Amino acid sequence: MDLGQIEAFVQVAQHRSFSKAADSLFLTQPSVTARIQSLERDLGEALFERNGRGVRLTEMGTTFLPFARRSLKALQEGRDALDGMRNLDIGSLKLGSALTVSTYVLPKILKKYCSAYPGVEVSVHTGRSEQVLQMVLSDDVHCALERTVHHADIATVPLYEDDLVLVASPQHRFARSGTATIEDVGREPLILFDKGSSYNQLIQGVFRQHGIVPHTLMELDTIEATKKMVEEGLGIALLPKVSTEREFEQKLLSPIVVADAAMPRRQISLIFRKNRKHTRAVHAFFTLLSELYEVSIPDAALTGAA
Q1: Burial of 177 (0-12, 13-18, 19+ CB in 10 A)
Q2: Which H helix or E strand runs over 177?
Q3: How many whole angstroms separate alpha carbon 68 and alpha carbon 7?
Q4: Beta strands in the chain (DSSP E)
Q5: What burial letters (b/e) apply to 123-159, b meaning 16+ CB within 10 Å?
Q6: Are residues 195 and 238 in the same domain?
Q7: For residues 206 and 136, what is the distance between their CA atoms, to the nearest angstrom?
Q8: Pairwise CA distance, residues 51 & 298, whole Å
Q9: Does one domain contain both 198 and 54?
Q10: What is the pLDDT of residue 196?
Q11: 298 pLDDT above the threshold of 80
Q12: Tell me, what CATH number does 71's domain have?
């Protein structure tokens, strides 16, 4: 049983004529007759009764007709779906993301992406770096944005440097001059966030490098809570710069330059499985990132759209 047989059967049933069915299919009448005969042999049943005025369905043919029509409809829907994916009218993009990236960076990227490809269904899965890496390795997501990792099965494309910046409330004494020494910073109540994160490790590393034990006032789970504590003047904090743009614009927080110490930074990268064919939706996301960050994404990733 093949598609040509099903199409011929449905057209003959609709027109009650082999000749009219042949015209609609742009075939000769003998070709249509041969397809119907072949289908009847495959099914082991006669589907039409022939008479001088045309043809009509047998009881078996009547029973088979709705299934034949549904099969043709399903195939057409499949073709339409493929056309939609080619034109990115439909499709899916599953992203993994570090928490900070998903909160402060990804919204602007996805605003551009979803505006260009509104038919693509986007889902974002967040977690710590190790969790995000595992999402990519297990193919739970197509790709991810997180700190740079090194793994034999992972391709990594650096996108930007995630700088940490010292922040204080505008009423804090550091805010008057906009600068401080690392020794001064160590004497101030310090508010840390996300103890298990790589940010926390970077911050602690700065103080260790200068032989300073910071005066840690409290440790919080989120950046947003940390910013609120600093706004209220409870202490100072080292935060990812991308998380403070709104507070700087609204003058809720003040950036402080640490004159005698280099602030730590993390490299944020696009990561994805090596040797994987990507859908057009993923391909379009890679292209957008390459344009936004002016980076080169490996040709295999851009040309391997499935």
Answers
A1: exposed
A2: helix 173-177
A3: 8
A4: 48-51, 54-57, 92-98, 121-127, 143-147, 154-168, 179-180, 189-193, 215-220, 237-240, 254-258, 265-273
A5: ebebbbbeebbebbeeeebbbbbbbeeeeeebbbbeb
A6: yes
A7: 31
A8: 66
A9: no
A10: 72
A11: no
A12: 1.10.10.10
The total of structural domains in the chain comes to 3
CA distance 203 to 305: 41
More confident residue, 232 or 78: 232
Q: How many CB atoms lie within 10 A of CB 72?
A: 15
Does residue 220 register a pLDDT over 80? yes
How far is it, in rounded angstroms, from Cα 64 to Cα 46? Answer: 11
Q: Quick check: helix, strand or coil at residue 259?
A: coil
Tell me if 211 sits within 8 A of 260, measured CB to CB.
no
* Per-residue pLDDT tens over the stretch 18-40: 999 999 899 999 999 999 999 99
pTM greater than 0.85 (yes/no): no
Give the amino acid at 26. Answer: F
Report whether 249 contacts 129 (CB < 8 A). no
Q: Given this model, what pLDDT does residue 193 score?
A: 84
Torsion angle, alpha carbons of 85, 88, 92, 97, to 10: 140
Domain carrying residue 29: 3-83
SS3 content of the chain, % helix, strand, coil (to 5): 50, 25, 25
